[in-house]
Design brief:
The chain is α/β, with parallel strands linked by helices. It has a single domain (3-208, 245-275, 315-333), classed as Rossmann fold (3-Layer(aba) Sandwich), CATH 3.40.50. The chain contains eleven helices and 14 strands. It is globular. The relative contact order is 0.14.
Length: 349
């Protein structure tokens, strides 16, 4: 583990706002553990287990068995690989599950256009199956990891948790945000009908240390970082007018833990650093000039088949984080530092 990643995990563990003793003697399931959010979360939980002697069982769930088994071996976790669209058999993980973080989802923009049925079935069926497991196991807490994309199109400048905008159902790419909305409704329904203590976390664009340096990951923050690492110009495939609401990886982990242990049942919470909000174009300039010192530049090259790229429609809003901050959480890192720490982590620092 590099210095940056260790610093960030220590930063999470030193958060006095998180009642770590709640995890003592518990079993925690993290779906999507081989993805970005699930991955950094299990790293933090594993470190907390050791530091605070929590006698906690951590189960990492994912669809990539080879990657998941390697992760579990490295961190000393239990690993359970299966298709989240199929019911989760309790015999495979045991009857006792106290807390669940449901992070599993298809997040590639191109898949939202080319495989919308897969995107929606993974979201809705996977969430239903995970909620059923939580109901049968009588979980103490459940966090559904949702997305800021559920807000859709709105003319409001500042977005709070009850400000839902318009989603055009004739646009295939909206398979992702619309299915996220349905999953949130399922969570609220399970809370109302079965008394399940479900909370919803609406993540902003999340990146930083712990983000895999994967050439196949086309998310804009990762592409900018790879260009910076290679010393190459940043190429925008749109005019970059959409606002990027961002949050650092381990600020997001602290947010998820706070929502689980302090949030109200059936309610949603934005996890975002409002100060780390900028248009895509402005974010590219921050990377080129503030992070790279002007040795690279930003160019615009819009492809002819832009519709197939799966870019989300432009949004101009800034997410409000007051509700989560009222629970004692606050973000630490702004945009430039988020990139610096991610790049340092990629370089093994």
């Amino acid at each position: 583990m590099g210095v940056i990643l260790k610093e960030d995990i220590d930063y999470v563990l030193s958060d006095g706002n998180i009642p770590w003793s709640a995890f003592h003697g518990s079993t925690v399931l993290v779906t999507g553990a081989t993805g970005l959010i699930g991955g950094v979360l299990v790293h933090a939980l594993s470190a907390a287990k050791e530091k605070y002697n929590l006698d906690m069982r951590i189960i990492a769930h994912g669809r990539n068995c080879e990657k998941g088994e390697a992760l579990a071996y490295r961190l000393g976790l239990d690993y359970f690989g299966s298709d989240i669209c199929k019911p989760i058999i309790t015999e495979n993980i045991g009857d006792k599950v106290d807390y669940i973080f449901h992070c599993a989802a298809i997040t590639k923009s191109a898949d939202m256009v080319e495989k919308p049925v897969d995107v929606m079935s993974t979201a809705v069926d996977g969430t239903h199956n995970t909620l059923e497991l939580a109901r049968m196991a009588r979980c103490k807490g459940f966090v559904y990891v949702s997305s800021m994309e559920i807000y859709g199109q709105t003319e409001k400048r500042e977005i709070r948790e009850n400000d839902l905008g318009y989603l055009d159902l004739s646009i295939t790419r909206n398979s992702y945000p619309e299915s996220k909305r349905m999953c949130e409704m399922l969570c609220v329904a399970y809370a109302a009908q079965y008394g399940l203590p479900v909370k919803i976390a609406r993540l902003a664009r999340t990146f930083g240390a712990g983000t895999p340096n994967d050439d196949c990951d086309k998310r804009v923050a990762n592409q900018f970082a790879r260009k910076a690492l290679a010393g190459e110009d940043i190429e925008l495939h749109t005019m970059g007018n959409s606002t990027a609401n961002c949050c650092y990886t381990f600020d997001a982990v602290r947010g998820l833990l706070t929502v689980l242990l302090k949030g109200n049942t059936g309610e949603a919470y934005n996890i975002v650093n409002p100060a780390a909000s900028a248009t895509i174009s402005e974010m590219a300039d921050i990377v080129a000039n503030d992070v790279c010192g002007g040795i690279i530049k930003v160019v615009v090259n819009i492809p002819n088949d832009i519709e197939r790229c799966g870019y989300a429609p432009d949004v101009g809003y800034i997410l409000n984080a007051d509700k989560l901050m009222s629970l004692g959480w606050s973000p630490r890192y702004g945009l430039a530092e988020m990139y610096r720490r991610m790049l340092a982590d990629w370089q093994g620092q």
